[in-house]
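Hi C.,

You asked whether I'd gotten around to modeling the 197-residue construct. I have! Everything is below, sequence then structure, no commentary in between.
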Amino acid sequence: MRAALGLHPQLVQSHGADIAMWEKLLGQSSYVGEVGLDAGPQYYRSLPEQKRVFERILRACSKQGGKVLSIHSIRTASTVLDMAEEHLDLRNNTIVMHWFTGTPAEARRAVEMGCYFSINARMLRNSKASTLLKTIPMARMLTETDGPFTEGKTGPARPEDALDCIEGLAGTYDIPVADMQKTIVGNLLAMLKKTSH
């Protein structure tokens, strides 16, 4: 387990001033997340402040390099990708699109930018998300639980619940679970190697 330094976009309205402390702590972690933008109805009013905070996060990560960023992009996938292209050195930082809900065109653009995608079991139960998965190369998929915000077998999702996602992905692609497990672990190792962890 590795700790990440985050500043969730849904908390920017109440905790946006914490960005200064976040910048001071960034050198202590190679992992950043969850960060990004959320233009859902409940958080839309704070979007300008979210963008200011997210730009500072991207610039700080670009300056230090070697970061893996888990990015939230509810109703903002194109904007998130635009900002990443403008403010983040993509040669020595890696983006993981968390619970991606953008369009197939946005997914293809993210793939071209070198992004990975974290998939959870709940996504596999959504027909739109299942269709979207077909635009994401298997070599760019990782798993997530998004616990405790999703349910696992015995309550709030825990790390061991990622196996449900692996089983679901194996069923989607009609391959053995063991092969999907090897693919996901291989993807993780490849991503970590790319960012020199």
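If it helps when you're writing up: The first helix runs from residue 12 to 15.

Thanks,
B.
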